[in-house]
Structures are given as C-alpha cells and as structure tokens.
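To assess whether the prediction recovers the assembly geometry, we first specified each molecular entity separately, as shown.
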Amino acid sequence: MVGIFCLGIASSCGTKTTNAEILNSLNETAAPTEMPVIEAELTDAPLVPAPITRKHPAKVVVRLEVTEVVKKLADGVDYTFWTFGGSVPGKFIRVRQNDEVEFHLMNHPDSKNPHNIDLHAVTGPGGGAAATFTAPGQETVFNFKAINPGLYVYHCATAPVGMHIANGMYGLIMVEPEEGMEPVDKEYYVMQGDFYTKGAFGAPGLQPFDMEKALDERPSYVVFNGSVGAMTGDNAITAKVGDKVRLFVGNGGPNLVSSFHVIGEIFDKVHPEGGSNVNTNVQTTLVPAGGSAITEFKVDVPGNYVLVDHSIFRTFNKGALGMLKVEGPDNLAIFSGQTEQKIYLPEGSAIQEMPKSETPKAAFASNKDMRMELGKTLYAQNCQACHQAEGQGITGAFPPLAKSDYLNADVDRSIGVVAHGLEGQIKVNGEVYNSTMPKIKLTDEEIANVMTYVLNSWGNKGGEVNLDQVKKAKAKYKH
Amino acid sequence: MRRLLTILLMLGACSIAQAQKGTPANMVHVKGGTFVPLYGSNNQAIAVQEFIMDKYPVTNAQYKAFVAEYPKWKKSEVKQLFADAGYLKHWASDLSVGSNAEKLKDSPVINVSWFAAKAYCECQGKRLPTVNEWEFAALASETKKDASSEPSFYQRSLDWYSQPNPKYLPPVQESFKNYYGLYGMIGLVWEWTSDFNSALIIGESRQNASLDRQLFCGAGSTGASDVKNYVAFMRYAFRSSLKANYTVANLGFRCVQDVPAKITAKK
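The predicted structure of the complete assembly is given in tokenized form:
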C-alpha cells in the first residue's frame, strides 16, 4: 500500500518534467521557461509606481481590495465612497506589455455590496468583470495577458454600474510598451470623476447618492482625485524648474467628458486617449469618460500651475481644480511676470470709476499746447479704438477724423456728437456710414482738449476749442 | 454530482417539522397579487400566491436555540460544503455570541449560509421565500402595498444600500415596518431567498442562453423590466454574487409558510 503510494508520487513527478520538456520543445521562442513572479507595487493618487526597468515579461500578481468607506468629498461634506484600495481613484497599477497578470480582487467582509472589476487593459469578455464578481468577504482570481500597451481605465461593473462608478469605483492601469517609457523627472496620477449628492455643492454632512441627478447627468461635484482640494494647497503636486513632468490622466466619469488643461503650460506631448500616438504642442486634451490621456511637459518657469477641466464652471463651481507648484529660478526670457500696471480705458470707458478712491483732480489746460497734450491722451483712451491712431477710421465701419469734411464743416456739430452720441446715417469724405457713436462721458474741459487735438492733427483745419464753445455747442446740438 | 451529494446530505437534516395551526406567532399574511419582477418574466406581471412571512429576520437568539438543538450547525461542526469559513464569525463560540450577546440577541443573525438558513426554516416547519415572494413583499412602504412608483421610497432604500454596515446591527423590532407589518425588509440586512441565484436562468433556456447571468456593466440592463429601479438592481446583483455556502456580514434571512388550505378556503 505504502509502496504504491510512493510510486504514484514518483511517477507523477516524472510526468511533470516530461511535460515541461515537451512544452519547451514546442515553444522555441520562449527563452526563459519560468517567468519571474513579481508582486505589483500599487500606489494611491497622486503617486504612481516606479517605471518598469526590466526588459522581459513577468508574472505580476495584483491584489486589490474593495472597501466601502466614508470619506471627505469637500470640507464639511462626507460621502460613502466605494473604493478599489481605500480611496478614490483606485490604486495605480503598472505592468509591462506581455506581462501575465494574476489578478486578485478581495471584497472586504464589511462591504454591503458585491463588486467586480472591468479592466480596459484586458482582452476578453467583460474585461474580467464576470470572472471577478465577488460577494462581500470573498476573493476571486483571474489571469490575463497585457497584450496592448497604453494607459487604461479600470472600474467596477456590477449592476447598477452607473452607481458603482459614481461612488468612486475607478482607477488606472498603465501597460508600458516593451521598449519602455522615456524617462522623466516627475510622474503623477490625476483622475477626474463626477459625484451626485442629494444636497447641492457644499451642503454639509454625510451626503447620499442622488440617482435622479446621476440619470440627468447633473453632478453636484466634479473633482480630481476624489475630493475638492485633493490636489491644492499642501496637497499640490510639485516639480522643479527644468523638470519634465508626466501626468497620467484618467476620467472615471460616470457621465462627463473632461477638457483637461493646465493653466500656463502647453503639453509638449500628449498620448491622446492613452494610446500609442503622440500629439505635440497641445493646450487642452479631451479625456473621455472611461478613458485617459498621458500628458508631458517641461516646466520652465516657477509658480503655480492650475489643473482644470476647461468646461470651466466645473472648475469654478464644482471642484475640478488641482495645482502643480513649481519651484526654482525665474526665467524672464520665457515669462517676465508683470512689467507694468496701469489703468486701461477702452472706448467709452471714461465712465469707469475706481471704487472707494478719491477722484484725481482733472488736469486743467491753460493754453493750446496743453490742450493738445491732454487731448492726445484723451483721444488714445476714448477714441482711438474706433477712429484709429492716425484718425483714419475704418472704411465702412468708423468714419475717418483725418481730413474729415464732416468734422471740418461744422466743429460745433462734432462737439455735440462727442457729448451726446450719434446714431444713423452720415456721409464722410464721400463714404456713407450708418452706425452708432456712443455718448462719451467727458467733462466739457476734456471735450475741449480732445477736439483741439483732433482739429490740429492729420491735416484738419486747426484752431482751438475752448470751454465756452463746448458749452454752447452742446446746447445747440442737443438731441 | 456535488448537487446530488448535497441533497443526500440534506435529507434528514431536520427531524421535527412541527405542524402549525392558524397564523403562527410573529408571522403575517401577505395577500397574493401580481407584480413585474426586475428579471425573469420578460416584463410580464406575474402572480404571487398568498403566503405567511416572518415579521422579523431571524435573530441571533433564535439561531442560537436552533444550533443548540441541531449541533451539526455549530461553528465547529458545520461542513465546509454547507458554510464557508466565515460562518457565524461574529459569534465568540459555538453557542455564544460573546461579550456583545445581550446587545445583539435581537439583532438579525448574519454570516449564515443558504444551506443553514434553509435548514433553520425547515426545522420550524417553514421554508425560505422565493425571490418573487420576497420582492413582492418588499414593494410595500408603511402605508402602501406597492410604493414602487414613489421616488422617496426608492431614495430611502438607496440611502440604506449606499451606507456602510453599522458596527452593531440594531434589534429587528426597531427597523422599518411596512404595510404588511413586516420589519426590516429595507434598511436592515440583505436576506436569503430559496432561488437566489436563478435571476436570469428561469424561463425558457434557449431565450436566456445568450444573456449574461452575472449582471455586469451594460449587460445588467439587458432584460431588466425597469432600468431605473436601482434598488432592485442592487438586490438582484447581490444575490447573483452568492453561492450557497457563502456567508456575508450583512446577509440574514427570514422564513415563510404556505397558507394552509382551510384558511384560504374560509376567505
């Protein structure tokens, strides 16, 4: 009896070796018969695992735990997140093309719901969803080969799938191409998601999921990395001047498509939709719900760079805002910072007032030269935008003031136009204009100055307009 | 093969099936009717016969009495085929919940497998409800037999389903009481049903052959009668994730009985 038992073991071992030899002889290309087994490094946003340096495929074991946790969605606002690994977005997974992944999905015993995972990097039905359908307190395992390189979204696909995703069940898996990725100085993980709470944005307390808002695609929150403020202030991502920065950008949705943009930077390179193509010099890149993009840029100038969804109300009112802090020396040739600051008064803006400030005393011209000087400034501020620097106007739109028959024929009429505005058809130097000149709110003194300037420029008839003439002209041409 | 073995082992699991007269204590009548289940009827209303249902999910104290009487369901003796390693894991020992015994005696028993729940019911002369019976009874709000068209009723259920488990489950008497007088149909624990894993395989097999049974992703909406009924989706999805020997920390059960023929005849 014992003898037979031993014999059984011996023969089964023998058979095993023979089988392996046969497999080797059949598969000539497979140089290493045994792939190394590696436990995957998993990271929480905004961090990513180290780039892969090995030059051969491996068997990578991924262990991902699903938990349902109450966490901060915004200051004073809590939400029950369903997570891959304890936070939103889920853990970042990094493997190499042709790696064989042994995927373990553990659903924590305290979970209320069953969960599964659909990895877009998987070739096969459901992306692993059916194979990983896991009740609370259970663990499931499946294997896949990462055939296609790229940055892929993974998410829970248990019914009702929208609710599972809306509660935060998504993350990214990077399948590095065989040739590896170009080295950069900093890599970060940024993932956008929209949230649907019963209360409006900022309504305090533990907020339940609102199904109606989700169906209507009216999110209360749109955030990067799981909460308002997850990437700002002390949580901002950082780089030094001269660093090449790579952002692995994902969008979990469930509903919205992101117009991902970094204010003050241009992406030198983008892998649109996380694929193999490279686009260069991109300002804003679309990140589909359930999709990704890899963006790369060199930071040349220190300062704060703001990550936004350029569907900009989401940034301004719903939380889609992150920050990249860049430290280092200035580079004034690329960016000077502010070199001047002055009041800007476009056409008609003389009515603007600086709030809560003393009105500066208007300069008073005591002779024609001074009128000319002050009038020149007034012209630049109030008239030039339309009538142009040399008074030439724009044919068909803004009548010329240079050598203007209309002006020179009746200066008082023109004073009235400045003071009261003009609407309707006029003929200037043979050209018909049918437009509106707004009433320019200047003082009589200012009108005298600007009219004197105009009359003594660009081939007009000259002369000086004084305060008295302005007063009379205004009264005469009042309409 | 396994199923056959299971059936053989189940035979004789319960020695005494007590015959009951009248409406048993702590049970209520659920008058029959029709409803459209989320899955399995091709959007047709189906009939549910009148049945009698436990008012409350089975409690720790009741289950302890059962285990004392049928030692094969003790933690230490249960067959792995019938209950996985998490069976009664919230109990300190075979016949004691432990230090939280007093606090949890009237709380629903959890961490029990389908086999255990089924055996329990049979030993009371009862049975597990079918999915359709359970869903039919769960349509009721406090005041209405069928509140399925009320958004607030849904939202309340959603609120519960999307909250994490409390550390200690409350006593069954404290939970939501519906129109029929059933407690905790919503807002307490998930509950086992007799045909929990048949959501998509009942009916004509040729028709169902291409449907995915596990309700993942968009496939979950295929064949559903009301794609907005998230609450029912979650229950069907939960049931579909189970196997009969699984035990889950928020999954309990209650039992039902058929209405005795003479009572029906009187009405």
